[in-house]
Amino acid sequence: MGLNYFDRNPYLSRNGTIEHREGKGTVIVIDETIDFIKKHKDGNQPLFAVAWFPSPHYPHAEVPDGPKMYEGRPHPGYYSEITLLDQQLGRLRDALRSMDIADNTILWYCSDNGGLIEWSSGGRGMKGSIYEGGLRVPSIVEWPAKKLSGRSNVTATTSDMMPTLLRMAEIEVKLPHPLDGQDLCGVIAGREQERKQGIGFWHGVGKGHKVHSDTVLKAYLEKQTAGAPLPYDKERLMLDVNDTTKVPEDMAQGHAAWNDWPYKLHRINGETYELYNLATDPEETINLVDDPAQQARFNEMKQALGDWMQSAIRSLNGEDYD
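The chain above was modelled as a monomer; its predicted structure follows.
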């Protein structure tokens, strides 16, 4: 729906036509999600919907209706937006039940990065960090027909969602490009207790182009309403698409990491390495990189991380895609 973050009264695009919507962005997202599901639930094809919540996000203007629950506490807007998000997820679940499709609907919830407040982020660092505080988030899968229950401590990533959902839906597909994720059906069903491959992370590999969506879309709406030519040329809108500058395959700037549970290796600007045992040191405070007993593991993980980083660069350069 939107090109960027939005809170209240956002400008949004519907198939290229700009709308100025009134209300809270997270509520609007669920309004549209429920309408979409109602429209397509009786079709002869499986239904797939994704709801990207703008909350919780600065400037924390999406306050729930009713009494102010966190007044006088630190970060009241942050926690109020989380409360609003909880309420809207509840609305979605209620809607699935009222449409009598909840039983065989897979509902998968997770966040996209760690918390905005370090002391509550679940580990060292916070959003924007490759330490666990910037990465570790809850993931909840609901599928009443399969009677899923219990919890799993197996590490997972959002890259696992695509192959897992394809397997859940019993869809056979042969993809022409490599995947970073893996099918987690065995983990979700409780049959498997570990993942088959490591997980790579990389922050600061390059810079994108800032797009202030409200400014852009408001200008579009004004021109569309007046029947005037659009205010931005195609070259500006296609800036990221047409920027085909190749990234050197040996480029190592930024902060990368390789999680091969329970060990996690960090590579910072290609020069500094840190190795942690997350099972015994979840706060990543005891660096094992110089421990003689860990040298074989360090060398193996260093190679795996380097191979994954080269794969990421090849994808970034378009070499994995026709």
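The mean pLDDT is 89.
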